[in-house]
Design brief:
Layout lengths: L10 H13 L12 H14 L9 H9 L20 H12 L13 H13 L10 H9 L9 H12 L8 E6 L9 E4 L2 E4 H18 L3 E4 L11 H10 L4 E8 L9 E6 L10 H18 L3 E7 L2 H5 L4 E8 L3 H7 L2 H19 L29
Parallel strand pairs: 1-4, 1-5, 5-8, 6-7
Antiparallel strand pairs: 2-3, 6-8
Helix pairs in contact: 8-13, 10-13
Length: 388
Amino acid sequence: MRPIRRGDRGPAVAEIRSVLARLDASFDPDSDVFDDHTDTAIRAFQQQRGLTVDGEVDEETWLALDASRWRLGSRALFHAIPHPLIGEDVRTLQERLLEMGYDVGRPDGVYAARTARSVGQFQREVGLAPDGSFGPQTMHALRRLGRKVVGGRPQWLREAEAFRQSGPHLLGKTVVIDPGHGGPDAGIVVPDGPLRWTESELTFDLASRLEGRLAGAGMRVHLTRGPHPSARIPDRDRAQLANDLHADLLISLHIDGYKTPEADGVSTYHYGDGTSDGVTSTVAERLAGLVQREIVARTGMRNCHTHAKTWDLLRLSRMPAVRVELGYLTSPLDRDRLVNPLFREQAIESIVAAVQRMYYPVENDVPTGSIDVRQLRMSLSGGLPVKA
């Protein structure tokens, strides 16, 4: 869908204002104009939901708005195939079940099989028929009970423990590399004299280099797209591919852009809603931090830090996933770096080093910038840190 933004008007804007009014009783829905008040409300909604805060209603923001219509208890929930129920009520239920110790996976707001199994387990324990559907009786039972697990989110513990038990080797692990955009979706496009630099082409080059390095270190590597896909690939489909492959990691590569050329630097994103007590992927948060530090140390790029987001690619993937925004194509400084193959190789070495450090036990971690990724193949048998 074309993003709906300030100045637009029509039925779609009226529907957006209607949803915003249900979320905030002080918001006046009686208009079909995307005015400054609507822009402010959309930005607040995006900030609260961990989305990109730009004031525009694109497909991802609209889906989040649509999901926000539902509150837990306002409808019966059940596992519907092939189109599962989606909504804020599902996400609230998943978070509550996680706090009680049930393994629903990532709270993605989708009432799929894993959530239905957890609801069935809860129903069995409280003496209800374990049909996996969430109706009035199950809601009443849930309200009566408190948390079963304290001292940390149990999903954090499961995820971290599973990662620890997988061992320090890269050999045999599966990684999905996602070159952002592609095909008719070129992403950021910047003319440079007779040349034309596009995000989709540069990210595919970066992904191909990363594919070669990680495969050389013993990993099974898959790309979410080829160099010239015929159609735009939604982030939901990219996450589903990684899920279907039972990947251990998902690394998405993007290049940023901004209206002013002074914006430059690298940033890395992981799943989370950005609040201090919100749900997050602990393992992905650690990987994002390692990727960010390695790139900054090895390339000298400006550190724009790591951030939690609920983007579809991060929210719907069932493995630790990170998205790397490797500079601004609209920045002359970053663009000069990105068009240099030596810099791209340096950036990829940074990500490979971060992936290897991710699998080391925390007590055996090594200083940032100290791993010589060219020797990782030589260390496959020992699984020990390789110093530069």
